[in-house]
Design goal:
Elements: E1 5-15, E2 28-39, E3 44-48, H1 55-62, E4 70-75, E5 78-79, H2 85-92, E6 95-98, H3 112-122, H4 128-141, H5 158-170, E7 176-180, H6 188-205, E8 208-212, H7 216-222, E9 225-230, E10 233-239, H8 240-245, H9 250-257, H10 298-302, E11 307-311, E12 314-317
Parallel strand pairs: 3-8, 3-9, 6-7, 7-8
Antiparallel strand pairs: 1-2, 1-4, 4-5, 9-10, 10-12, 11-12
Helix pairs in contact: 3-4, 3-5, 4-5, 5-6
The protein binds iron/sulfur cluster (SF4) and magnesium ion.
Amino acid sequence: MEALLEVKDLKKHFPVSNHIPFKKSTQSVKAVDGVNFKVYPGETLGIVGESGCGKSTMARLVNQLIKPTSGEVNFKKKNLIEMDARTLRATRKKIQMIFQDPYASLDPRLKIGELIAEPLVIHNVGNKESRRERVEELLETVGLNKRYAARYPHEFSGGQRQRINIARALALHPELVICDEPVSALDVSVQAQVINLLKKLQKEFNLTYIFISHDLNVVRYMCDRIAVMYLGKIVEIGTYEEIYSNPRHPYTKALFSAIPKENPFEEKERIILKGQVPSPLNPPSGCSFHERCPFAVDICKTTVPKVVTPENTHQVSCHLIN
Ligand code: SF4
Ligand code: MG
């Protein structure tokens, strides 16, 4: 199957001031540092990792909300980074985002109807009447009453606001939706409703999702494939079964050892990691995980591990795996 999205060697390095006048800083924060992955039509690719590992920066790079330092973001084989402004604008209609905080992402001065219609207005779609009809249809699609169009964001709960954000993201008939921690700010009981809604909409509109989360239980429920990020790099990627049942990278093993198994009688060893995630300003040499890795050997300190493919769809970067 052909990929809908293919990201190649994507990097985002933010320059850091050295506080020396007239001298250009050579230091940078390597927020995303050479990431490769594909997303196939109709699937959900989960991106997991601790906070600060570059997940959100990557989401914004894919949607071109920020410009990368280098690399490619190919949507249907066309590189967004090389597109002229007009083509990019048209392409971005097909790639929408849902953000974490449903409270911050809706302008409190606008009515719900105006908020949902905004992408249609920006992209010059339809007239006032057709937009009103589309807003009502979208509200019903996300399980809200169409009369809510006349109300303001403060009148709604977190879960309802996230539904409004989802309606807004769907307004332009996207193909790829990037969900950046879409339920992390919600109560657990509401999380399940929003997740179920996202799944239902995926089927109904044949959507492809990139689903970013630090919550492995949510990811387990939602994703077909999973990419594990550490310090701006993907250290392991594979199908849901490969990552949950047979994690190969020591970091993935540690992450997943912290969540309970579906079968409580299955033996599981908890791996506790030493220390904190190091600063992306001065990431460790070699394998950037070596300072915390319980299995590190000498070569890990000096040489960046290559990507290997132990199984068909499974890729890992670790010197111990070949
Ligand atoms: Fe651990 Fe070395 Fe593998 Fe990195 S390359 S994960 S330090 S064993
Ligand atoms: Mg984030």
